[in-house]
Structure formats: structure tokens, C-alpha cells
What we know:
The complex is a heterodimer.
Chain A: H1 12-28, E1 32-37, H2 45-48, E2 53-55, H3 61-71, E3 75-82, H4 83-89, H5 91-100, E4 105-110, E5 113-114, E6 120-121, H6 145-152, E7 156-161, H7 165-177, E8 182-187, E9 204-205, H8 212-218, E10 224-230, H9 236-244
Parallel strand pairs in A: 1-2, 1-3, 3-4, 4-8, 7-8, 9-10
Antiparallel strand pairs in A: 5-6, 7-10
Helix pairs in contact in A: 1-7, 4-5, 5-6
Chain B: E1 2-9, H1 13-26, E2 30-36, E3 43-53, E4 64-69, H2 75-78, E5 82-89, E6 99-102, H3 104-110, H4 118-129, H5 134-145, H6 152-162, E7 179-181, H7 182-192, E8 197-199, H8 207-214, E9 220-222, H9 227-239, E10 244-248, H10 250-266, E11 270-276, H11 293-297, E12 307-309, H12 314-331, E13 334-340, H13 341-344, E14 347-349, E15 362-363, E16 384-385, E17 392-394, H14 408-429, E18 435-438, E19 444-448, H15 452-462, E20 465-469, E21 471-473, E22 484-488, H16 494-501, E23 506-510, H17 519-530
Amino acid sequence: MxxxxxxxGCGNFAILRAFEKASQRVIKEGYDIAISSGIGCHxxxxxxxxxxxxxxxxxxxxxxxxxxxxxxxxxxxxGFSGDGDGLNEGVEHFVHAARRxxxxxxxxxxxxxxxxxxxxxxxxSPKGWKSKSTPYGNPEYPINACQxxxxxxxxxxxxxxxxxxxxxAEIFYRAMxxxxxxxxxxxxxxxxxxxxxxxxxxxxxxxxAESVYEAMRKCEDARAxxxxxxxxxxxxEDVVWRSMF
Amino acid sequence: MNVCIAGxxxxxxxxxxxxLGKIFCKLGYSVFVYQEYQSRIRGGHNASVVRASExxxxxxxxxxxxxxxxxxYVFEKHVERLRGVLVCDSSFNLEHDRKVEFPITETVKKLNxxxxxxxxxxxxVFCKSFGIEAEVVESVIRESLGKAGERxxxxxxxxxxNLDITVGQVRRVGERKELVSGAKAIAEGMLDAGLKxxxxxxxxxxxxxxxxxxxxxxxxxxxxxxxxxAIMMAIGSAFGGERAAVGTSGGGFAxxxxxxxxxxxxxxxxxIILAQRSGPxxxxxxxxxxxxxxxxxxxxxxxxxxxxxxxxxxxxxxxLAGELLNLSWKFQTPxxxxxxxxxxxxxxxxxxxxxxxxEVEIFREKSSEIFKRYEITESGVSPYASPPAxxxxxxxxxxxxxxxxxxxxxxxxxxxxxxxxxxxxxxxxANLEPYIEIKNGKDWIVTWGSNFGxxxxxxxxxxxxxxxxxxMRPLFLPKISGEVFCVECNxxxxxxxxxxxxxxEVKRILRWDGRPFTPExxxxxxxxxxx
Lengths: 245, 531
Ligand SMILES: Cc1ncc(C[n+]2csc(CCOP(=O)(O)OP(=O)(O)O)c2C)c(N)n1
Ligand code: SF4
Ligand SMILES: [Mg+2]
């Protein structure tokens, strides 16, 4: 495997370990997994997992996975994206993949910052936050990724915190097993540019909601964690393949 | 014989052109249909020029032997080109010495048919007055419109029963031929070469390819959220081991740039159809051009092997689309079919066939060892693998296993490995007719793309030799001397500049008005140079 180049203490380690656990469980059940990642610190995870992988370009993980899943529907495909990667550069793909209910899983490494480019604001950075590119404070309001995905039609939406590896592994597992578009936001402190490790004291867990509207309210507080919503709905691949034959 | 059908958007001009084309095909003629239409759904001015000949042709003509007007106001735009008969509604007050009039609108109304049936009525008037049997017209309408067209047969009958003028005699000259559009030819070429996925965001003039493939269940054709998504999906499918292609025009091609570079770096085969239209920017969306040659040759950042070819005719677009998809997989690198509106949206008599899928080996087995996907080889081509094989691909520079690296030594070798493919590609392309030469005399007309049809005719008439470039990268320029003309649809002479770089002196024949060349116009330009 590639030699890990993340900073000591980086939340990416916990994501890596939790995903290893979850993927081993899935593979033991007889499934094949292929992964992809975007550009940023998170994207390096492709090199660190002993799985078929494609480290693609900035923001374009969901369409890549859509094409791969269509070509080989037997694969469980998982994408790793960053808040910059997936909510700045490539946000349209998130919306459309969720809308189609493409059977892919997206794990969003949300550290509230462009890590790899050394600390600028992203779409999830709080208003007023001073970063290298916003020395007078971030003038923009942050986006709530789970709400965006719920509104777009995702059929599995969850949020976890890197401080809780075990729960994270369980949720990754369930997300992969869910048939349809699964979205897991991981609150991941960046030791070098946005260390919110203390958040662990404030994180709280909520139960799954019965409706999208209830789920929207449940995930409104950015510290709320848990599986907010799941739904069984026909997947994009199933519809496309059925129309063919 | 060169016939123009003109009217407004919504009058069914395009369909009428195709039906008239098929009528000539049925009588054994070689046919070319040029469609000129505006970027609007109703009103304005559309025209369809249908040329039929006993010789093989690949262009329409400038002067019309007949003009069929479905609106009175379009007459003025075309009268300068009319050298024969005007066919129109008897209620139009148009001045012309040779006229065939018929109460077209009234007949359609009486039969309680929708307005659009006027196009069939007008064609029938033309056919009857040119001695074409009703059965020929009827059978083409039945084939083209199916059940939905049944009632149009009443219009044909009404015209044939009530019109008694003969102004010409179109004879049967041979066996029935097939009329195909460039879009259809490109689609068939890709399918014959094993296409399984086609992703496209609608953009004129590439859109008809999407429509054709969406209705064909030999492949999956989908419309994603953008051109970026389209090419990333294609890369995903190709990584999954299936042949995929995308199609667009200049603006959408620009959006694909970063992903084309990714395909070059990760050595993923993908075919991109770039159907040119008049630019820059939105330009004239429904008009033809050849402005994107250098863009296609340099589509993205970094250096990587790339194959670019431009078809000369509709039949050639079938062959090259298939050839490029095969080459892309053989060499694991992107390929671009650089074509034009005047190919994709025109129609001609063509026999499609001969393209076959050239299989490549794909390793797809699970294993505990990581697949050496980027093995350094002499040819530069490494073994291909798809998941569930343990295969790793990367947009970063990488080692033989696909792991990211910035090691100077590995980077030196890996970059060179990729680039070595260019030498191999050049060797293969050298045997694929990279350009066509037709020797008629010591002086030359050079061209590329759809101008070929018109150039070939003029050159034969005037005794010029023809050189037409098909492969643009790798580029092989014909060895020529004497007086050299270069015909292109752009402002600066993009191919002409490449010829000049070889030390040739080139006389440019250019246009950038969105209209394709006819033989008559090229002839006029050549003669003007002589003055
Ligand atoms: C098209 C493009 N624009 C910009 C970059 C530069 N870039 C590299 S990583 C990055 C930001 C990554 O932020 P995020 O996705 O949050 O990942 P993190 O490093 O925080 O994990 C940017 C802008 C790029 N690689 N590609
Ligand atoms: S910069 Fe931040 S996100 Fe990137 S590796 Fe270091 S700690 Fe992790
Ligand atoms: Mg980030």
C-alpha cells in the first residue's frame, strides 16, 4: 500500500480504519467493492486501502462511480470526497446522483477546510471564520450537507464523528449495504488548519426519522449524528437496465 | 438535380428533405441532403437542399433546378439561386417564369389534416410534375412515417388526381439505395466497434447521435447533468471494462478538458465526438464550421498520447468512428472524432459496414496481489484490468501499480512510457489512410472534413489533384508541390497554417459564415485567384 502522508492526529486515520473494518465485513459476505476518491487530503485514501480504486480529479467522484456501477452492477462502489471536493467544486454531481438514487455510497470527509491547499474556507466553513483566503472572516453562510442530500432525494443519509470509530464503521457498513444512493458525512477535524476535536464533547446522537421533513430538522444542528433517514426506492441502474431489455 | 425545399421552422422542412431524398434513393440515385435551419422551434426560415445524381456525390449544389416554397416570404431569399421550376401554393403571388402551382393549403385543410402535412403535399406536387410515380412517393411515406403517416397518403392521392402538369422527367436509374445521416453513421460505427455506453448532454450538432443511440438497445445512452459528468461517466464505464463514448460541440468539449487529461494520465480509453458548429461561444448554434482543429489537437493540460481524426464524408464518419474506438482501446488513451454539423446533420446514400470490434484483453479476476496496471513496457501499452481485479488507477503520477508518486526516477519512466505509445500509434495510423490523394494534375486543392465532397468535384472539373487530410494527430501531410489551394470553413486557415509550416505556399479559400461550400462556390473562388 502507499505510505501514509496525513498529518499525525488527522481525522482521516479514523475514517480509514473504520472503513477497513466495514469493507472487510462486506467482502466476507461475498461482495466485491471498488472505490474512488477526489482531490484533497481525503483523496489519498485510495492508495491506503487494499481495494480496486481510482483516484480521480477534483469534485468528480459521483459521475465516475455512476459510470462504473452501470458497467458492472455487481460491484459495491464507494466514493470518498471532501467538503471542498464535493460541496464546492462538484456539488452538482452530488445533487444529481442523489436525485437519481444511483446505487453508490459517498463518504464526505468534512473538515470544514481545504486541507491539501493549506487552509482556505469551504462551503461548510462557518460564517466569519478567518482562513488564509478570508483574513477578515468568511463572508459566506455554510451549507448543511445532510439537508442538501435529503432535499435532493438521497435514500440513506447519516452523519458521524471521527471520535467514534466503532459507530462510524457500523454506519459505513449499513450505507454500503443500502440499495440506492447513500450519503455519510463524517465530521473530521483537521489538525493543521481546522481543529475542532473538542466538538466530541458536544456531539449528540439522534434516532432515525420517519419522514424526510423530520430528518431535515434532526440534522439541522451540525453536531447531531446518526442515521437520519433511509428509504427503499428503485435505483437508477435498475431503471436503466430494465428499459433496455 | 438539385432541389431546395424552404419554409418556416415548424413546417416540417427537414422531414420533407429526408423524404424527398429517400424518393430519389428509391429510384437509384446517389443523394446528398443539406439541412439549413435556425435555432428556433417556430417561424423564421429553414431550408433543405436535396441533390440527386447518377454519379456518386457528397455535396449539395448551389443552383436549384427546383425550389419548393412552403411560405411566400422565403422565395426572395432563394430566387437568386433558382435556375428552374418554382413549386408553390397557388395563393402565393410569386413572380417566376416557370411555375407549378397547386392549392396546397386548401387541399390539406379540406382533408382535415394538420398544417404540417403541407410539406407532403408540396413534395407530391414536385414529384407529380417531374413524372415520379405515386407509388414511389407513397411507399417512401409509409416507410418513413409508419402508421402515423397513413393519412398523409390521402394528400398524395389528392395531388396526383388533381394536378396535370409535367415539367420534367425523373427516371429510375438503378437499384434502390439507403439514405443515412452522419449522426446515424457515427452511431453505427461506434456500435460495430463494441460501444456499450454513450453519455451526452444535448448540444447541436451532436444531439442526433444521442437520440439515435437512446432509441437503440444495443447500447445504453444516457443524458447526465453536464458534459463533465458525461465524460466522467464514460471514464467510469471504461474503467469497468466496457466501451464508452461521449458526444458534444465546442462549448461542451471545453468542459470535458480536465477529464480528457485524466483519461490520458490514467490510460483510460474514451472516444469523444466533437461535432463543430460556428463559434466562438454560442456562435450560430445550428450552422457548420471547422474552427476547432487546434482545440481538438490540444484539448487539455499536460502531454499525453491522443488520436484525432476527421471524416471526409458521412460514410467515412462511420469508418472513423469505429476505427477510433478500436484504436482508443488498443492504445488505452483518448481519441477524438473531429467532425462538423455538415456531416452529423446531413444525409447521403451510403453503405455502412466493415467495422468490427477489435478485442483487447481485460483482466477481471480477483487476486490478493495488486495488478501491475502500469507496467513499463517497450511499446508503452500495459495490460488492462477492471474491478473486481485489484487494480488501482490514478490522476496523480504513479508507479507501475498505480500508486501516487513524485519520485523523479519513476516519473521520468512512467511519463516516457505513456508518450512512447505515440510512436506506436503513428505506425498503425500510417496504414489507415491518414490522408487521401486523388491525382488529376500538377496543382493541388487540399482540404479536410466535409468540404471534401465539393472539392473533389471541382478538382475533377478543373484538373486539380486533391489531398484530403483524415488523421490530424498523428498528422501525416501529403507530399505536394505546384500551386496549392486550401479549402476550409474558418477565418485563419487552420490546416493551411500546418501546410505553410512545411514550407508550402498556400492560397486560402475560406468561409466562416456557417454555410458549407458547394462545388460552384469553390470553383468561383479558384477562378477568382486566377484573375
Ligand atoms: C480543478 C482543481 N482545482 C483546484 C485544485 C486544487 N486543490 C487540490 S485539493 C483542493 C481542496 C481540497 O479540499 P477538500 O476537498 O475539502 O479536501 P481536504 O484536503 O480538506 O481533505 C484544491 C482546491 C485541483 N486539484 N483541481
Ligand atoms: S492538513 Fe488536515 S486534513 Fe490534511 S492531512 Fe493534515 S490534518 Fe489531515
Ligand atoms: Mg476539506
